[in-house]
């Protein structure tokens, strides 16, 4: 990494509000509970503002021939001091809070409380964020955070699709359905009564249709699991990119942003294809 890039990395601070919405709000709530109130010291600045205001009010009062100009200047100066002190204290508190939220030590301490023990994608996302919090090239950091947010959104969407698959399933496995079909085929072959054979034949047709539906759901469930795994590998790729960036000795060794975007775009496209397949299978089962 060049001296200029290293200097930029030293000054880079992760903005918690730019985290994925699923995590950003929870992080801010946790920080509000666990971070101590910011220390502020606005008295000196407020006193200077009030003193200048008093001089101005007194001068205007004397030039205007006001007898009570001195007392009015004192009163208005005190009011100015209070207003300035409140304003500066709030401004300093806001700035201190922003700095505390983005402090790498704070992120390292609080973030694992929200990501550890969560689903695999959230844990992987949290590891990327922790790596970003250590500081890196701002342009690449922004790009990686955007791609990580998109990956987590894809993972959440796939998790919802998995729930839809479970709701559409009747709880029986493909193997169970196949055994059911084989049993009905055997009973149809063994039946000698025409009415019994006809009734069993109708049941066999329904069982075969149900088997096809169950097999389709099984295939789509496997696609969802495979795509979730691909997303986890993409998160690993983002962490590896950050690792290479920190080890890079020159700008020529820095990762190519287009490669990062291409990788996540490919995963994103695959996720959309899986979601479309889920919708198709569920629609056919409902029909």
Q: What is the strand tally? A: 0
What string, H for helix and E for strand, traces the elements in order? HHHHHHHHHH
The secondary structure category is: mainly alpha
Question: Poorly predicted ranges (pLDDT <50, ≥5 residues)?
Answer: 1-11, 39-43, 45-51, 84-96
Quote the distance from N terminus to C terminus: 59 Å
Radius of gyration: 33 Å
Give a short account of the largest sheet: none
Helix content: over 70%
* Mean pLDDT across residues: 75
Shape: elongated
User: How much beta, percentage-wise?
Assistant: under 5%
Helical stretch tally: 10
Structural overview:
The chain is mainly alpha-helical. 82% of the residues lie in helices and 0% in strands. The chain contains ten helices and no strands. α6 packs antiparallel against α7 and α8 packs antiparallel against α9. It is elongated and about 80 Å long.
């Amino acid at each position: 990494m060049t001296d200029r890039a290293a200097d930029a990395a030293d000054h880079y601070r992760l903005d918690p509000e730019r985290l994925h919405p699923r995590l950003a709000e929870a992080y801010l709530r946790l920080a509000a509970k666990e971070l101590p109130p910011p220390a502020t010291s606005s008295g000196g600045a407020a006193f200077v503002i009030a003193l200048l205001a008093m001089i101005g009010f007194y001068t205007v009062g004397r030039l205007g021939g006001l007898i009570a100009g001195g007392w009015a200047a004192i009163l208005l100066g005190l009011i100015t001091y209070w207003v300035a002190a409140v304003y500066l204290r709030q401004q300093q508190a806001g700035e201190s809070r922003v700095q505390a939220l983005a402090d790498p030590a704070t992120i390292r301490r609080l973030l694992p409380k929200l990501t550890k023990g969560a689903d695999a994608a959230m844990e992987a996302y949290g590891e990327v964020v922790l790596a970003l919090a250590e500081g890196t090239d701002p342009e690449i950091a922004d790009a990686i955070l955007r791609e990580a947010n998109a990956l987590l959104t894809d993972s959440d969407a796939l998790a919802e699709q998995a729930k839809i698959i479970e709701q559409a399933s009747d709880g029986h496995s493909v193997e169970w359905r196949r055994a059911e079909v084989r049993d009905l085929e055997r009973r149809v072959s063994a039946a000698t009564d025409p009415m019994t054979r006809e009734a069993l034949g109708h049941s066999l047709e329904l069982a075969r249709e149900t088997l096809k539906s169950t097999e389709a759901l099984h295939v789509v469930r496997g696609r969802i699991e495979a795509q979730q795994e691909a997303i986890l590998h993409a998160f690993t790729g983002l962490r590896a990119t950050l690792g290479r960036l920190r080890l890079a000795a020159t700008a020529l060794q820095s990762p190519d942003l287009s490669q990062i975007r291409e990788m996540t775009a490919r995963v994103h496209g695959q996720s959309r294809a899986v979601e479309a397949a889920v919708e198709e299978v569920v629609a056919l089962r409902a029909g």
